[in-house]
Design brief:
This protein has helices at residues 9-59, 64-71, and strands spanning 78-79, 98-99, 102-106, 108-111, 117-120. Helix content is 47%, strand content 13%. The N and C termini lie far apart (69 Å). It is an alpha+beta fold. The chain has one domain (10-120).
Length: 126
Amino acid sequence: MYKKRAFTLIEVLIVVAILGLLSAIAIPNFIKTREGTAENACQANRTMFEAGIEQWALDENKTKAEMQTKFGTSAAKKTIKNLSGDNIEYYFDPADAVCPSDKTKAYTSYVDTYGRAVVECPVSGH
């Protein structure tokens, strides 16, 4: 005699419940990973802009005061997206100075008292 084998309803429901539980555990981890990737991209962008500003100042023989006039001070930060002139476009594109996780918000910059460029992200947590 041939006996037909099939899954019972209980077995199918258990498999569906296990898959639901695994997806409930995995989805938040995927979201955290994506947010972490945006933070890493933001940090890399800020580092690139800081290096570009400092290279610009070195190549153009700019003093700390001239750098502060162009990029702001800690009390009066400037939006990088609006910068132009003085060959700055050769070192980076100011139009690209936006946070990867929120394209509507642009990075701000200033030159500290030691003459180092500091670029900040407007999105909290970056």
